[in-house]
Design goal:
Length: about 550
């Protein structure tokens, strides 16, 4: 046997070593196993060629692992999200839920995409670079990208798609991310340029988020939109399901797609969703309730998938109406949150303590380490609630985040101890984002992590943000946000971010006790997941990479 060290087989980020054997040795073993030879036969052949028992066993084991780790085409997959409704959409500018994000990732591409560490790499862009002041960004496009109808993707499509997020009349849910951009320009057929009114070093990160997908220019039919993604849309019924089939002409030959067909829909009851996974009716079960971890771990053929993140649940009080427009009422409730208990009991330790603002330790340098966590203080809460003059309130609750109902019931119990009547009105997950969120005076919300603290706070708290869910308006916060977006000095930016976090914690209508990890469950046969911490199942980056090990 020869002594050349080689490797064979890979998944995303993984390699399997064969050991001290030649390419011919490896090819012989892999070919034999693929043709149906069993382990004993192959070991016998290797020993006849002069290998020791140990060496023969080693190469057969490595070959078997390499074959198992090689992505395979084929199979159908069913993906169950935790909610759906009539607001489900295939228009990227209007995406609201992670189910929208997953469907978008199947049907479309973006200029850039995220790595697991939240850096970005080119996708439809071949390369990108900024000028010296980060006020202009140039994106050179790949020339081999085709839409599902066979037409070529060009600069015209990119400029049209990006312009949908600009201007005061834009309905984009993420237009705040590209607010510094004044214009997208076509340089030539495969080059575009973004012109910014101020330095904007975070533009590529913004463009990697869920809403900035590239459509064929002048698309109007979002029931059957034309994209360039790894899967073609076969069927879409909002609030019911979508069906996606593999795009066999996909331009990216360095990845999948591997699955023949993916069906995506909602199962709103968390128990039913887990049971569907265990029974094999679905292969991916999103937003696992932490209480169900033992059930999944005790079942055969399924497993828990956990990704540390900065996602979070929140109770929101709309500050433009009663009772949320009473600052003493809101602050009183904030002092009733049992943060440590929520983390330990409700989230089973999956996450971190939060301070009524969205930025947690997962944001790294964007997290204000000096802040003092607001303590549980029933006496202070009682005094504030009495001062407010509010004696009762109604909180609308749907299980949009694993354990959010338990968090609300815990707050209700603490409120009753100080003589406050907090009524809990349970509502269905179906249609929640369209009928309840940002409409009822008190409701609940679940947020995915964003790639930077500036983006997260701007999206949810800037006065003119489409998703300013408590309708809180603060001139100082808005000014700081604009300054932080343009600031390139890390120390100065950190000071701004700290002040912004304190303003949200002290002044806004958000009660945010914890941050959490992404906790999902899946069949052990589904392989190849990225681990981007921005949404369920590795940031919803999975469609292009996952495969079924039959």
């Amino acid at each position: 046997m020869t002594k050349n060290k080689n490797t064979v087989g890979s998944t995303v980020g993984d390699t399997v070593e064969f050991g001290q054997f030649s390419e011919a040795d490896k090819s012989f073993v892999v070919d034999a196993l693929n043709k149906g030879a069993d382990r004993r036969q192959v070991m016998g052949w290797l020993m006849a060629m002069g290998a020791t028992v140990g060496a023969a066993g080693s190469i057969v084991t490595a070959a078997s692992e390499a074959i198992a780790a090689t992505p395979k085409k084929g199979g159908n997959l069913r993906f169950a999200w935790d909610l759906h409704g009539p607001s489900d959409t295939m228009d990227p500018t209007l995406f609201t839920s992670s189910l929208d994000y997953g469907r978008g990732r199947m049907n479309y591409n973006s200029l850039v995409r995220f790595n697991d560490d939240l850096t970005v790499r080119p996708e439809v862009a071949e390369s990108f670079e900024a000028n010296a002041t980060a006020t202009e960004w140039t994106f050179k496009l790949r020339k081999d990208v085709t839409f599902h109808d066979g037409s070529k993707l060009t600069a015209d499509d990119v400029v049209w798609s990006m312009n949908r997020h600009l201007g005061k009349d834009s309905k984009s849910k993420a237009k705040v991310f590209v607010e510094p951009v004044t214009e997208w320009k076509k340089v030539d057929s495969h080059t575009v340029k973004a012109i910014c009114k101020q330095p904007y070093s975070e533009l590529p990160i913004a463009l990697g988020t869920f809403h900035f997908k590239i459509l064929k220019a002048d698309t109007t039919d979002f029931q059957n939109p034309t994209g360039s993604g790894p899967y073609k849309l076969k069927e879409f019924k909002p609030g019911v399901r979508s069906v996606h089939v593999r795009n066999d002409d996909y331009w990216n030959d360095e990845a999948g797609p591997y699955i023949d067909q993916i069906e995506a829909f909602g199962i709103t009851d968390s128990v039913a969703r887990v049971n569907a996974l265990i029974s094999g009716d679905v292969q991916m079960c999103a937003n696992l309730d932490p209480k169900a971890i033992p059930q999944v771990e005790g079942a055969s053929g399924v497993e828990v998938m956990s990704v540390a993140s900065g996602r979070y649940p929140s109770i929101t009080c709309l500050v433009d109406r009663d009772p949320g427009n009473n600052a003493d009422f809101v602050l009183g409730l904030k002092h009733l949150q049992r943060r440590e208990r929520i983390l330990k009991v409700v989230q089973k330790g999956q996450g971190a303590i939060a301070n009524d603002q969205p930025i947690g330790p997962a944001y790294g340098a964007g997290y204000c380490k000096e802040q003092t966590i607001r303590p549980y203080d029933p006496d202070k809460a009682k005094s504030l609630l009495k001062k407010s003059g509010v004696t009762s309130a109604e909180l609308h609750v749907a299980e949009v985040y694993p354990g959010i109902t338990d968090i609300c019931l815990m707050l209700q119990r603490e409120a009753s101890k100080v003589g406050f009547d907090l009524k809990i009105k349970k509502v269905p997950n179906d249609g929640y984002w369209g009928a309840v969120w940002m409409k009822k005076p008190m409701n609940v919300v679940a947020w995915n992590m964003r790639p930077s603290a500036t983006m997260m706070m701007g999206l949810a708290y800037k006065s003119d943000a489409a998703w300013n869910e408590t309708f809180w308006k603060n001139e100082r916060f808005d000014k700081l946000h604009g300054m932080a977006v343009a600031e390139v000095d890390p120390g100065k930016k950190y000071e701004m971010l700290c002040e912004m976090q304190k303003l949200i914690s002290d002044k806004s209508g958000s009660l945010t006790p914890v941050t959490g990890s992404y906790l999902d469950a899946k069949s052990e046969k589904v392989k190849g997941f990225p681990r981007v911490p921005l949404a369920a199942f590795g940031g919803m980056e999975w469609p292009e990479f996952i495969w079924l090990d039959s």
